[in-house]
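Q: What would this complex look like in 3D?
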Amino acid sequence: MDRFIDDLPPMDLMRSEKMMFVQLIIPVESAQRAVSYLGELGLLQFRDLWLRYERCRFQVKEQDFVVAFNYIHYDVFPLLQLNSDKSPFQRTFVNQVKRCGEMSRKLRFFKEQINKAGLQSSVHPVSGPDLDLEELEIQLAEHEHELIETNSNSEKLRQTYNELLEFKMVLQKAGGFLVSSNGHAVAEETELSENVYSMNDYADTASLLEQDIRAGPSNQSGLRFISGIICKSKVLRFERMLFRATRGNMLFNQAPADEEIMDPVTAEMVEKTIFVVFFSGEQARTKILKICEAFGANCYPVSEDLTKQRQIIREVLSRLSELEATLDAGIRHRNKALTSIGFHLTKWMNMVRREKAVYDTLNMLNFDVTKKCLVGEGWCPIFAKAQIQEVLQRATFDSNSQVGTIFHVMDSMESPPTYFRTNRFTNAFQEIVDAYGVARYQEANPAVYAVITFPFLFAVMFGDWGHGICLLLGALVLIAQERKLSNQMNLGIILSYFDARFFGSSLDIRYQFVPQLIFLNSLFGYLSLLIIIKWCTGSQADLYHILLLLLATVAVPWMLFPKPFILRKLHTERFQGRTYGILGTSEMDLEVEPDSARQHHEDFNFSEIFVHQMIHSIEFVLGAVSNTASYLRLWALSLAHSELSTVFYEKVLLLAWGYDNLVIRLVGLAVFAFATAFILLMMETLSAFLHALRLHWVEFQNKFYHGDGYKFRPFSFALINDEED
Amino acid sequence: MYGFEAMTFNIHGGYLEAIVRGYRAGLLTAADYNNLCQCETLDDIKMHLSATEYGPYLQNEPSPLHTTTIVEKCTLKLVDEYKHMLCQATEPLSTFLEYITYGHMIDNVVLIVTGTLHERDVQELLEKCHPLGMFDSIATLAVAQNMRELYRLVLVDTPLAPYFSECITSEDLDDMNIEIMRNTLYKAYLEDFYKFCQKLGGATAEIMSDLLAFEADRRAVNITINSIGTELTRDDRRKLYSNFGLLYPYGHEELAVCEDIDQVRGVMEKYPPYQSIFSKLSYGESQMLDKAFYEEEVKRLCLAFEQQFHYGVFFAYMRLREQEIRNLMWISECVAQNQKSRVHDSVVFIF
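A: Here is my prediction, written as C-alpha cells for the whole assembly.
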C-alpha cells in the first residue's frame, strides 16, 4: 500500500511548495536594482532583520553551544523575538522612504485637485520618457509649486470678485430699501401716522424707515445705517445679537441675495442674505461693527444719493466683467496644467509606490560588518531558485557592479511559510480553506478536495436544475460533477492517514487511524452501502449487521488503550537511552517531536496521556454520530428548497392562472418571479453556501486539518498594486 | 438600581461602549512613546505617527511641519471621534457627553475674553480655542465690556448660563476678575456634573464621583497654590473650592488659610490617597506637582475601564486622549527646540 501511495502522481495543490531559507549578500551599489528586480519576480519573502533576536538560552542544550561557537548564526537555535530595538526612523533607507512619502503626498494633492476641478485623470498611462526618482521629485515639486501659486492667485481673484459681487448685490437690494421707502413716502404720506410699528411686516417697516429718513439727513438726526451681507444660516442669531447689544434700539432689514456666492476655500456655493441695520449713536456703531466682524458679515457702504448709487453700480459691474474674464482665463490655465499632470498621474503613482516598497524592503536588510554589503534573509520556493539567481545576476550586470550577489541556502528552525500555486479556479477554494486557517507547511491541503466536494455539496443542497440554470449559466461545470459519491466522511480520515504517514508517525496509524476507520465504516459505511444496495435491489443483507457492529465495538477499546501504553514504553526506552549518550537523545527527540505536541514535556505523564487518548476516543465516537447527523442538512436543505419551489409554483402561479383576470395573473406572475429570484435563488444560495462551508470547515477539516501555518507573502509589485487598488 | 445595569445598559449604551473601548485600544503605548522620544525631527514624529491611528490625519500635511499642526490634527481626530459618539448617543448619554465639553467651553470663554482685553485679533484667538468647546456665538464674546454684558449678550444662550449666577457683577473685566470667573464657573460646572452623575446612579455615579472628586481636589490645590501671594482673600479663595470631594469640607478650611507650598503639603498629606503624590516631591517644590497629579489621574482613568456598563469610560477616554495630545505636544516641542533631554519632564505614559 505504501508503494502504491508513493507511486501516485504528484499533486501540486496537495502539499504546499517546498520552501527554502536563503541568505542574500548584495553589494550596496546594486542593492536597489536587485530588490526591485526581485519585486518584479515576486517569489521571495524577505524577513525583517532589524527585529532583534535573542537566543532562548534555556531551550538550547549543552552540545548545541559547541556547535553554536563553530557556526555562529542565530538562526540555528530557537529564537525569541523581542521588541524591536530600533525605531523605524533609524533604519538605513529611512530618508528615501520619507521622500517617497512626501512625493505620494504631492501626488494625492494633484489627484484631489484634478477631482475637484472635475477633470478625469487618464486611467491608461501614456508612455512618456522614463524618469528616475530624483527627476520625478524635482518635477513634482515644480508642479506643486506652480499649482499652489495659481491656486492662491485665483483665490485672491475670487475673493475680490466675491467682494464686488456682494457689493453689487448690497447696492441693489439695500439701495432698493432706501429708494422704495422714499418713493413710498411721497405717495402715501397720510398713512404714516396710522402705521402700527411692527417689526414683522415689511411694508410697515419700510414706512417706519422712511419716516425716520424723511425727518432729515441721517447724520443730523443721529440715525445711521450699516449695510452688508451675511450667510443665510447666521441671520437669525445675528439679528438677535444686534437686538441684545443695542437693547432693541435698532431696525433690521433683510432680503435674500439673488445669487449664491462661492466660498473660495471650500469651493461650495453659499446662500447669503443682505441686511441693512438702522441705529443711532456712535457707541452702537462700534458694537454693531464688532458683531458684524464676529459673525463674518461683510459691510459695504451704500450711498443714499441715487445718482451716485447708479454710478457706483455701473463701475462695479464693469469691474466684475473684467474680473470674470481674468478668472476664467486663470481656471483655463489651471485646468490645462492639471490635465497634463493627469496624463502621467497613474504612472507616477505606480512608480512612487514601487520605489517606496523597494526602500521598505531594503530597510529590512542589514549591513554586514564591512558596511559594503547588505545582508538579507528570506523564504522562497525551491523551484524559484534558478529564477532568483538569474534575476540577481541581471541586477549585478545592469548596475555594473564589480561583485556579484551571494545567494545561498541556510537552515532555519522556523517553520517555513505555506505557498500553494493556485490558478483562477482553485484559488477560490483555497481562499475558502484559508479563511478557516492557513495550512501548516506541507500539510495535506483540503482545498484539493474542496474543489470537487464544495460545488457538489452546494449542488445537493440547492438541488434544483431549473434554479441552478437560472443561478449560473456557467453551472454546467458544477452540474457535470453532480454524481453520487458514496462516502464523504471517510476522506477526512484517510487524509489524516496521509498526514500521519507524511510526518512519519506509524504509531498514530496503527492505533488511531485503523480503529477509527473500522468504527466509522462499520457503522456509517454500512449505512451508505445499505443505501446503495437498496437502490439496486431493494433487498437487505442482515448477515453483515452483527459482524459490523461487533467490529465497531472492538474498534473503540482498540482506539482507547494501546497508544498510551506504547507511548509509555517508548518513553521508558528513551529515558534509558539518555543515560548512554546525549547525542542519541537529541536525534530521537527530533525524530519523534513532530508527531505530537505532548512530547515536548520532558517529564512523561502517563495519566495525562491516557486521559487525552480517552477524550480523543470519546470525541471521535460522538463526533462520528453528530457529524453524520450534520450531513443530514444535505437532505434537509434540498427538501426545503424543493418544497418551497412547489409551494410558490402551485399556490401562487397556478392559483393566479386559474382566474380569468389579466390583473390577477400579472400580480401572481410578479409575486412568483419575486419569490423565485429573492427567496429561491438568493436566499437559498446563501444558505446552501453557508452549510457547504460548515460541512467543509467543521465536519471535514476537523478530522485532520491543523491550519496553523502562515501564508507565503513574497515581495511583489503585482501584490502591492492589487492591495492599493 | 445599582448592580442591575448589566440587564439594560447594552440596549442603548452597548454599541457606544464597544466603540469607546475600541478607541481606547488605539491609544499610544509605552513602546510608541519610546520611539517618539528618540525622534530627531518633527518629520520623524510624523513618520512614526503615520503608523498609528493618527496616520490618516497627518498624511496630507506638507513638510516642514510645525508643532501646532501636529497638535491640531491630533485634536481633530479626537473631535471626530467625539462627534461620532455624540451622534450615536441617546439620552442620558448624550447629555453626559455634552457635559464633558463644558470645561473646554469655560476655557474658551476665558481665552477670548482675556485675548480681547489684551487687544488680540479675534480670528487669531478663535484658532487657539479648543474645538470641543466651541459654540455658535463665541466670536461675539469680544463685544462684551463687563461680566453682566458677557452674560446678557452671549452666554445666556449657552449651557454655561446657569453657572454664571454667582459671577454677574458690573465690574469691568480685568485679569484677576477673569481668573476668578473661570474658577467660579468651573466650580459650578463640576458641582453640576457631579449632581448629574449622582442622578444617573449605579456604577456611573460611583466611578464618576470618584473621578470628579479627584478633579475637584486637584483644582482646590491648584487654586490655593496659585493664589498664594495675591490679593485674593481667604474667604474668596474658600468660595472657589467645589463643594464635594475628599477635601470637602475640613480640608478646604485648612487649604483656605495656607500661606506657602509646604503648608499645602501638610494639609494634603493627611489624606492617604494624596500622600503618594506629595511624597514624590521634595519640600518647597511645586514644579513637578502638575505631572504628579496627571500621573495619578491617568492611573485612575485607566481603572475606569476595568468595570463595564457605565458612562465613566467615555469621560476617561476623552481625558486620556487629551493627555496623549498633551504628551505629543510636549515631545514635539522638545524635538523642535532641541531640548530632548527634557522630554521626560512632562510626558505621562498612559499604559
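A: To summarize the key features: Chain B has 17 helices and no strands. Residues 78 and 318 of chain B are 8 Å apart (CA to CA).
Q: Very helpful, thank you.
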